Amino acid sequence: MRHPLTALVATAALALAGCGLTSVSEHTAEGGSGPYPLTVENCGADVTFEARPERVVLLKSGPVPFLAALGVFDRVTARAGEYPRAYYDDATWSALERIPALTRKTDTSGHTLVSQEVVIDQEPDLVLGQLDNLDRAGLGAAGIPVIEEPAMCPEGLDDPGFDDIRAQMTTYGRIFDRTAEAEAANAELERREAALTADPAGERRRAAVLYPTVGGGVTYAYGTRSMAHPLLEAAGFENVFADTDERVFEVTAEELIGRDPDVLVLLYAAGDPGDVVEAVRTLPGADSITAVREDELMPLLFNFVEPPTPLALDGLEQIRQRFGS
């Protein structure tokens, strides 16, 4: 069975001969100089492109499925951080493996550790993703535009949903002068969403999405300002944190016991999925939680839920398969 990202790219390629991992020269011949200069809004800032980006540095894995679907992955000249194999179809993984890795170092929260100097030395004309030490202000001073996934902006998204995935696909389509490819990809995303969304009728089990700290420490939960909320709803669950108007927040073992979810989806950035399961099982009083007692625990790589990207639809499919929803 093909990975859903392969299906997305293949569908767009059938509709538009220019899709897939198309070369820059092919599209330039077809599309000319494009709609530049172009200004897009991102994280409350105007980002202007004088020409189509040709040297892209990835600081996070979230943009990968967008770039692959639009056929512009060949513009990525360097990457930093973790890119788990499970996210990608064979073609995208092969292309990713050919991109030089600046570093794979991350902190305990999964955040990439790389210096500003190393990134600037790559002479990018676009950086995708922000880090604490690599933000818009710092890179902007070097004349480098930055695009962050909107859910990861300081203000976040008020009401995240599948429409935000399509909106970001449209934005990347504009930036790379791939508007037709973006429209084809969005049509396929809409089709998949409709096919994967559970019938709202009937009794709904209660669920939560957590990010446990492996080895002991803080446990985080996701509220209505995260993509976790619409994913749980689409899978046919009631989010036990539906009354929390935050993206992510600390949660105690006592509160988890009190809310008593029937199902737990456990996010992690990399490593052994069994570690995040064990992190929850060893919480004080964890056996009092129905999901733990009945072994309804599902480890899931972070980008299958957050931020809103085409991988969220893969996450929805996995959640439904695991819990039979």
Could you characterize what this model shows?
With 325 residues, the chain is of the alpha/beta class. The protein has two domains: 4-193, Nitrogenase molybdenum iron protein domain (Rossmann fold); 205-323, Rossmann fold, CATH 3.40.50. 36% of the residues lie in helices and 17% in strands. The chain has 13 helices and 13 strands. The chain has helices spanning 4-15, 24-31, 64-70, 90-97, 116-120, 136-141, 162-175, 179-196, 228-234, 253-259, 273-281, 290-293, 311-323, and strands spanning 38-42, 45-49, 56-58, 76-80, 101-103, 126-128, 146-147, 205-212, 219-222, 237-239, 248-251, 263-268, 297-301. The strands form three sheets. Strands 8, 9, 10, 11, 12 and 13 form a six-stranded mixed β-sheet that branches. A five-stranded parallel β-sheet has the order 5-4-3-6-7. Strands 1-2 form a two-stranded antiparallel ribbon. A hairpin with a 6-residue loop joins strand 8 and strand 9 (219-222). Helix 1 (4-15) packs parallel to helix 3 (64-70), helix 1 crosses helix 8 (179-196) and helix 7 (162-175) runs antiparallel to helix 8. The longest helix is centred in the middle third of the chain and has 18 residues, at 179-196. The two termini are 21 Å apart. The relative contact order is 0.14.
